[in-house]
Model the fold of this input.
Amino acid sequence: MLFWLKKVISFWLMPAPLCLSALVVGLLLLRSTRRRRLGRGLVIAAVGLLLIASNKFVAKSLLRPLETIYPAMPEFVAGTPLPPDLAACRFVVVLGGGHGRTPGVAANNVLSTASLARVVEGIRILRALPAARLIVTGGADPGYVTTARMLGRAAQAFGITPDRILYLEEARDTEDESRAVKGLAQDAPVALVTSAWHLPRAVALFRSAGLTTVPCPAGYNTQEDAGFALDDYLWDVGAIGGTTLALRERLGYLWIWLRSKA
Done:
């Protein structure tokens, strides 16, 4: 019950549903003589918030601090030792980020953008750790192939043998995934691969579960500044998606902090 309550509340606090709901209510109230002022205020607030949330500079300003908390893993050069904490890892954990359901299409072509970026980084790290195993996570609606299976198929397509892959298909969220990984890895250190914006919350949950965790960010939505460009300060649909990601992650982190898991 708590899981679904969390999902419902977080959904309605996101910019698009919140603003559109306020806009609809405001337009309805404009038809009332007694509530017209309130309606006008709601319409103005909804439009203003949508303009802010869909601005690319705002989205980047919210996402960039999340994506720079943990540095990216470097390029692995032959003959050069790996970072010591990464070299000690016995598992590479790739968290699922969703997938499509088009039949007859290769797994890498139905994985979401987030899932594909994560599994590619996971494979890169796994190849540098020949003794490590890959743990992939992610469920699906009953009767459908899970995200974990799709990640596993993509990994095999890129040369990872099936015996190196372990599947966690029942977890509903990152907290469930952390507990399930703990059951597999026990006290062994793990390289945790997920989207850079999701990593701070994921690391907090994995460490709260008692796992020795090496953060491995993937799938950046922002990059370092390369000078002024007018386009970076304009509006587009993608920006509201970035703003939504940043707000959702901060709400999620607040939730686990309140429960002493961060």
